[in-house]
Design goal:
By secondary structure, this protein is α/β, with parallel strands linked by helices. It contains 14 helices and 14 strands. The protein has two domains: 130 residues, Aspartate Aminotransferase, domain 1, CATH 3.90.1150; 233 residues, Aspartate Aminotransferase, domain 2 (3-Layer(aba) Sandwich), CATH 3.40.640. Helix 3 crosses helix 7 and helix 9 runs parallel beside helix 14.
């Protein structure tokens, strides 16, 4: 199907939403496992069975030895950073196009987030942009497989191995995404996932961290439970840690979702492929660029709207779509992370600005500065990003409706801009 097969706009239809049942695949499977938990009276995962089974089956899907279930995607990243165990003032390289949870995980372990620029077409970190940010204090790299599209991992891993730096993969939006035939989350030292409401599989909230490394797994399991050594001959609270234990109610829902995950992801890929085909040749709108060697699992469908061609910026284009009942997220995030008050004002612990200031071991090192001029590709990418919601309940009718309105809106913009 191409642009030429799209008819004029049809009557408005209601699109399924991942914010409620219309766009989610909940059913008797979730209800049955939830009922088992409630009837057992054991709602906490320490003594329950569902979360343990979730960890076992998720590890099997990803062919890894260890899976650690926690309370959120943010908690999974915090647990991963804690397992790497940075010293105060150490640096962790990551992307400025990400959820704040991934950055808070770094600061919460008293390390400094160091932002690297992105590829303007995929929105992902690259080995080249990471290389420019490595220093003797670099303790880890967190890559984000944004929207379900994998980073180009081979050169990133080669660079990290060269410097002896572990890579944490943020797979919150990238369930079953692959890179050169391998599942993302298994390529670095630790892979982190989110079970938040809108993700490819969900329990409302929750997170999962996977690894093949026994030592990292041990430290993550301790960290999620106040560092208490359950099952040890002489257990103690071994280090500073939090309570990130998932409930067995969350575990039950996530387990049922996991058993449906392959089909839910395939549905997203099928309908996203339809939209890409329908938008071929549409001036001013560029479908997502999938990383070579990768598969995209479409947490969201991110178009690039070219203002120079369309004659309107991405915010104006989104408003025109909204008139037809298609809600989108122009720019994805309104500003890159480093422009948030947290970083501009260094609002961390009281008025201390720690760990930006007050870390004796950083004396003699230059101050960490976040300058917009260092991120030209990030600014360019955000200025064009038009992020469409996506879920496994979309049908061809829904996709065709979206395509019709995208094409007609683009044509109207081009006509006003004298391009057609």
């Amino acid at each position: 199907m191409t642009q030429q097969t799209i008819k004029a706009k049809t009557q408005r239809i209601q699109l399924p939403s991942d914010g409620d049942a219309s766009g989610r695949s909940f059913g008797k499977e979730e209800m049955a496992l939830l009922e088992q938990v409630v009837r057992s009276g054991i709602l906490h995962a320490t003594k329950g069975t569902m979360t343990k089974q979730l960890e076992l089956e998720f590890a099997q899907v990803y062919s890894v030895e260890h899976c650690v279930a926690v309370t959120s995607g943010t908690a999974s990243l915090h647990t991963a950073v804690a397992a790497i165990d940075p010293e105060p003032g150490d640096e962790v390289i990551t992307t400025p196009i990400t959820d704040m949870g991934g950055i808070a995980a770094i600061l919460s372990q008293n390390a400094l987030p160091i932002f690297a620029d992105v590829d303007p077409k995929t929105y992902n970190l690259t080995a080249e942009t990471i290389q420019a940010k490595i220093t003797p204090r670099t303790k880890a790299i967190i890559v984000v497989h944004l929207f379900g599209n994998p980073c180009d991992m081979d050169p990133i891993l080669e660079l990290a191995d060269k410097h002896g730096i572990p890579v944490i993969e943020d797979c919150a939006q990238a369930y079953l995404t692959t890179y050169k035939g391998k599942l993302v989350g298994t390529l670095g030292a630790i892979g982190c996932f989110s079970l938040q409401q809108t993700k490819q599989m969900t329990a409302g909230e929750g997170g999962l961290a996977i690894t093949r490394n026994d030592s990292l797994a041990r430290r993550m399991r301790l960290f999620r439970d106040k560092a208490w050594g359950y099952g040890d001959p002489k257990p103690d609270h071994y280090f500073l840690a939090l309570n990130y234990r998932m409930t067995d109610l969350q575990g039950a829902v996530a387990l049922a979702q996991l058993r449906k995950l392959k089909g839910m992801v395939a549905a997203r890929q099928r309908t996203a492929g339809m939209l890409t085909e329908m938008l071929k040749g549409v001036e001013g709108l560029n479908p997502p660029r999938v990383t070579p060697g990768g598969s995209h699992t479409y947490w969201r469908y991110c178009l690039q709207a070219d203002e120079e061609i369309l004659g309107v910026d991405v915010n104006q284009f989104a408003l025109l779509l909204k008139e037809e009942g298609i809600v989108s997220a122009p720019r994805y995030i309104q500003k890159p992370a480093f422009q948030c008050d947290l970083f501009k004002e260094r609002k961390t612990y009281g008025a201390s600005q720690f760990p930006y200031r007050g870390v004796a071991s950083r004396q003699g090192l230059p101050e960490v500065v976040y300058d917009e001029k260092d991120f030209p590709n990030t600014m360019k990418a955000l200025s064009r990003a038009l992020v469409l919601p996506w879920n496994e309940r979309y049908t061809e009718e829904h996709v065709r409706y979206i395509a019709e309105n995208l094409i007609e809106t683009a044509k109207e913009c081009l006509k006003k801009n004298g391009k057609c």
